[in-house]
Specification:
Chain A: Pfam families: HTH_62. The complex is a heterodimer of chains A (74) and B (348). By secondary structure, chain A is an all-alpha fold. In chain A, 47% of the residues lie in helices and 0% in strands. Chain B has 348 residues and is an alpha+beta fold. The chains are: A mainly alpha (74), B alpha+beta (348). The A-B interface holds A 1, 3-11, 15, 19-20, 22-23, 26-28, 30-33, 35-37, 62-63, 66-67, 69-74 and B 25-27, 38, 120, 151-158, 235-240, 253, 257, 270-271, 273-283, 285-286, 289.
Chain lengths: 74, 348
């Protein structure tokens, strides 16, 4: 019986370049020890990653966007 | 195939009875399809009825033993493709089209395993007595929902499930095999361990380090489901939320292959949960996978007679204890089965 090994099981489509950049920025910010919401939003605004409308991040727009990006896909 | 389930060795290498076993991810059984898998020494057919409820049955037509998985899905029942015998989700013969009214009709003739779905996986109860009621399916807290969130990682490995159990109850390999990973790069490379009893099993833990590497494992047997729980710290890059917890269940496919279920869990809510989920999908899953592949490479390459020639030391006391517990249960079940069988033969 052939054995089943699937490296990617949490999503069902390739990541986008936007998601790649966003993940890089978040990891860098978290890696500096910034783990609080106001701090993360302020740090994101210093980077080049912006939401689709190009606006500055707010706590509300960040939590909305991260909920969308982190949604369960199954 | 099932003959070996009569013996102590068979029960040990295929999994003791009177337990729930995780079978496969829920998504593997699609509506309208008949799915064949082998688990814990049984040849199984899985299908969903028209309301989506999953049924786990022996893949063997009660008429002439043809494979029901080659049959036809009929919504609330299935039909064998050989002579059209129809069976419902309880294993009752609903119709014998070739011989209407025959004695087989209306009989519960197909072994049906009580089944549940939880945390993205299908579980079934493998009773020693197939007619007895199952124990309740109680799952460890991290995959019970609430404040916890989880992702299931499912794998199939070309080695006995017992080697995976060994691996899970051996925290010390983290500091060596996984020393270059994103999670297990720090901490001491020597340790003294202790065993601490719990209501449902035992914890095997380092006495002088916690929260730095893979520092403890817990064997949990709720009387229904066997699992291992352990914690592994995340680096700061994983964001807020503390370490992640793995709840692991392993199920034999056969004597030398097994299915592994690794729920990666974190106690996080709100935006912190969403952030973890986003990073898991985009970064962490791939890194966790690399770690698991290191375990797989090691486990699959182990000699078949690994247990026959070992020189164990203090870090292996959890393995010794667990192997003894599993063998004792297998021995007890084999003896109990041997006692029941003559009685059954006499009853016929």
């Amino acid at each position: 019986m052939p054995l089943n090994l699937e490296p990617v099981q949490s999503r069902f489509r390739p990541t986008t370049s936007y998601e790649e950049a966003f993940a890089d920025e978040l990891e860098a910010i978290y890696g500096r020890g910034v783990h609080d919401l106001p701090g993360v939003v302020a740090a994101l605004n210093e980077t080049g990653v912006r939401p689709a409308d190009g606006a500055e991040w707010t706590e509300e727009s960040f939590t909305r966007e991260i909920a969308r990006l982190g949604a369960r896909e199954d | 195939m099932t003959n070996s389930l009569h013996t102590e060795d068979g029960l040990l290498t295929l999994g003791v009875r009177d337990r729930w076993y995780a079978l496969c991810p829920s998504r593997q059984v699609r509506p309208g399809e008949l799915t064949r898998i082998d688990r814990a020494g049984e040849e199984l057919l899985l299908w969903r009825d028209s309301s989506g409820v999953v049924h786990v049955q022996e893949d063997r037509c009660p008429h002439r033993a043809a494979r029901l998985s080659l049959g036809v899905h009929m919504g609330d029942r299935i039909a064998c493709n050989y002579h059209g015998v129809q069976l419902d989700g309880d294993g009752v013969v609903a119709s014998v089209p070739g011989s209407p009214g025959c004695a087989l009709e209306g009989r519960k003739a197909l072994r049906t395993f009580p089944a549940r779905e939880h945390a993205g996986a299908i579980f079934a109860w493998f009773g020693a007595d197939e007619d007895a009621e199952p124990a309740p399916l109680r799952v460890p807290e991290p995959i019970s929902g609430g404040d916890w969130d989880d992702f299931l990682c499912y794998v199939e490995w070309d080695c006995s499930y017992l080697l995976s159990v060994d691996n899970l109850m051996d925290p010390m390999h983290g500091a060596f095999l996984h020393r270059n990973s994103h999670t297990m790069f720090s901490g001491k490379r020597e340790a003294v361990f202790q065993i601490r009893d719990t209501d449902t099993g035992f914890v095997f833990e380092k006495t002088d380090q916690r929260g730095v590497n893979f520092d403890w494992s817990e064997w949990v047997d709720t009387g229904g489901l066997q699992s291992v729980t352990l914690d592994i710290p995340y680096p700061a890059t994983a964001g807020p939320g503390g370490p992640f917890t793995i709840v692991a269940c392993v199920t034999a496919i056969n004597e030398h292959q097994h299915a592994g279920f690794f729920w990666r869990c974190r106690k996080v809510r709100g935006w912190e949960r969403d952030s973890w989920r986003f990073l898991y999908k985009n970064r962490l899953e791939a890194r966790h996978w690399q770690v698991l592949e290191q375990d797989r490479a090691m486990a699959e390459a182990m000699p078949a007679d690994a247990w026959a020639r070992e020189n164990l030391y203090q870090h292996d006391i959890a393995l010794v204890r667990l192997r003894r517990m599993l063998r004792a249960e297998a021995k007890r079940q084999a003896a109990s089965r041997a006692e029941r069988r003559p009685a059954r033969a006499a009853a016929r």
